[in-house]
TrEMBL record:
<dbReference type="GO" id="GO:0009097">
    <property type="term" value="P:isoleucine biosynthetic process"/>
</dbReference>
<feature type="binding site">
    <location>
        <position position="233"/>
    </location>
    <ligand>
        <name>Mg(2+) 1</name>
    </ligand>
</feature>
<dbReference type="InterPro" id="IPR000506">
    <property type="entry name" value="KARI_C"/>
</dbReference>
<dbReference type="InterPro" id="IPR008927">
    <property type="entry name" value="6-PGluconate_DH-like_C_sf"/>
</dbReference>
<keyword id="KW-0028">Amino-acid biosynthesis</keyword>
<feature type="binding site">
    <location>
        <position position="229"/>
    </location>
    <ligand>
        <name>Mg(2+) 1</name>
    </ligand>
</feature>
<dbReference type="Pfam" id="PF01450">
    <property type="entry name" value="KARI_C"/>
</dbReference>
<keyword id="KW-0560">Oxidoreductase</keyword>
<keyword id="KW-0413">Isomerase</keyword>
<comment type="similarity">
    <text>Belongs to the ketol-acid reductoisomerase family.</text>
</comment>
<dbReference type="GO" id="GO:0046872">
    <property type="term" value="F:metal ion binding"/>
</dbReference>
<dbReference type="InterPro" id="IPR013116">
    <property type="entry name" value="KARI_N"/>
</dbReference>
<protein>
    <recommendedName>
        <fullName>Acetohydroxy-acid isomeroreductase</fullName>
    </recommendedName>
</protein>
<feature type="domain" description="KARI C-terminal knotted">
    <location>
        <begin position="221"/>
        <end position="361"/>
    </location>
</feature>
<keyword id="KW-0460">Magnesium</keyword>
<dbReference type="Pfam" id="PF07991">
    <property type="entry name" value="KARI_N"/>
</dbReference>
<dbReference type="GO" id="GO:0004455">
    <property type="term" value="F:ketol-acid reductoisomerase activity"/>
</dbReference>
Length: 485
């Protein structure tokens, strides 16, 4: 299952619970193979200069330097991003910056990295501008979900491929740059080949993924990708984290902690030592790191089912198109009425002092916080497994992306900063579902966190196949942590 066949790159078999997957390792030593793997693509057009557009255009250009493949950026008329694109060397004078439809019409591979709602609104004119046989590239399956909901499809005769980095755009760029000295350092990515009329879709997708710096690439489908991605950002990647730290901060304050201590035990514990422990040693290691396994077990047992129920609800609403429609509807409102920031919550004012205390009094793995967080992360992984997702997709969307990309940024900038500055699709989902998670923790989990843990739940956690899957994926991780200074 989930195999990759390539005529250019060497594939490997990774053993996962219940079977195997085919993956491809990345590395700068493979860059010389990129033109061959692209099979006739000599001009890549990246439409959009948001976080992913910027990162991917720069990485692709750097990886393909010295070849006959050109990377260009296409922007809508009057785009405020044009100045930054020019600053980074994409200019009209050298033919690498232009109108988005002109770039789409003159490129062999057109990578669509504009905002989801904008892509839904403008896909028809982009498709109409494409050169015959040009490959359509995506980094998210949102457009497939939208096309399905309106009874439409991608244009016939065009390969449709996806490369989906499992991290935010800034991580894609930063880890690529750090990888100049550590071969293969970057953000893992999934690939999907949705339409392959010329038979070269897989090689092109692998070339694109390797050029972005992906340490390892795994296979999925476009539908599976958008389901896991959109659910994940509303759950453990963003929405659940927001709800969790707000609930715990309030809980610790009611219990008598001062504001900074409550902030350390909630936010700092999650984004710092809990994230690092999972990244270095896995989920089960967090339990031991608390120094109070009984408290961890009680919290885990109290939170697992409420979290699982919410993840399942989110999944259903993404799968039936409800969540996608809400994003498109919001685009109309937000044209004249921008979203308010969540950073106005009183707890975030404690962040500055908590950050200042890091060296003198660093946050520790709080057992209550750890139990709730790990229960939620495991609940998402279990729900994805029950829905048939591949293990690489499960551990990347539920664990690796969180602890190696998003949580380090939250530690450096704050959870509120991350939520207020993420993509519009993710931000809308976080604002909708974060309060639901907060209510579930406050009303369902925390009142039971002092009760004896259900022994069966803890045994299931310790024997969960997610530990084996995460360990297999961790072997492929380069020894480099993202720098967020």
């Amino acid at each position: 299952m989930h195999t990759i066949t390539s005529s250019v790159f060497r594939t490997e078999i990774m053993t996962v619970p219940g079977g195997t997957e085919t993956i491809v390792r990345g590395g700068r030593d493979l860059f010389a193979l990129l033109p061959q793997a692209l099979h006739g693509v000599r001009r890549i057009g990246v439409l959009g200069w948001g976080p992913q557009g910027r990162a991917q255009a720069l990485n692709l250009r750097d990886s393909l330097a010295g070849t006959d493949v050109t990377v260009s950026v296409g922007l809508r008329p009057g785009s405020a991003s044009a100045a930054d694109a020019r600053k980074n060397g994409f200019t009209e004078e050298n033919g690498t910056l232009g109108d988005w439809l002109d770039v789409a019409g003159t490129s062999d591979l057109v990578i669509l990295l504009i905002a989801d709602a904008a892509l839904a609104a403008n896909h028809e004119q982009i498709f109409a501008a494409l050169a015959p046989g040009a490959t359509i590239g995506l980094s998210h399956g949102f457009l497939l979900g939208h096309l399905t909901s309106i009874g439409s499809d991608f244009p016939a005769g065009h390969p449709v491929i996806a490369v989906c980095p499992k991290g935010m755009g800034d991580s894609v760029r930063r880890l690529y740059q750090q990888g100049e000295t550590i071969n293969g350092a970057g953000i893992n990515a999934s690939i999907a080949v949705h339409a392959d009329p010329d038979g070269h879709g897989t090689d092109r997708a692998l070339a694109w993924s390797i050029a972005l710096g992906s340490p390892y690439t795994f296979a999925t489908t476009l539908r599976s990708e958008y389901l896991s991605d959109i659910v994940g950002e509303r759950a453990i990647l963003l929405g659940a984290v927001h709800g969790l730290v707000e609930a715990l901060y309030r809980h610790f304050r009611i219990g008598g902690d001062d504001a900074v201590t409550a902030y350390q035990r909630s936010t700092e514990s999650v984004t710092g030592p809990i994230a690092r422990t999972i990244s270095d040693s896995g989920l089960a290691a967090v339990r031991a790191a608390t120094g109070d396994e009984d408290a961890f077990d009680r919290a885990y047992a109290a939170a697992y089912q409420p979290a699982r129920d919410l993840v399942a609800e989110i999944y259903d609403e993404v799968a039936d198109g409800t969540e996608l429609r809400s994003v498109i509807l919001a685009e109309q409102r937000l044209a004249t009425r921008p979203m308010t920031a969540i950073s106005g919550s009183p707890m975030w004012r404690a962040g500055t002092e908590a950050h200042a205390r890091r060296e003198a009094a660093p946050a520790v793995v709080d057992p209550l916080t750890a139990g709730l967080f790990v229960a939620t992360m495991t609940a998402q992984a279990d729900e994805f497994a029950a829905r048939g997702h591949a293990w690489s997709e499960i551990v990347n969307e539920s664990i690796i992306e969180a602890v190696d990309s998003l949580l380090p940024y939250m530690h450096a900038r704050d959870v509120a900063y991350m939520v207020d500055n993420c993509s519009r699709t993710a931000r809308l989902g976080t604002r909708r579902w974060g309060p639901r998670f907060q209510a579930a923790y406050e009303q369902l989990a925390l009142p039971l966190a002092d009760e004896p843990a259900a022994d069966g739940l803890i045994k299931e956690f310790l024997a969960n196949p997610v530990h084996e899957a995460l360990a297999a994926a961790a072997v492929l991780r380069p020894s480099v942590d993202i720098s967020v200074s």
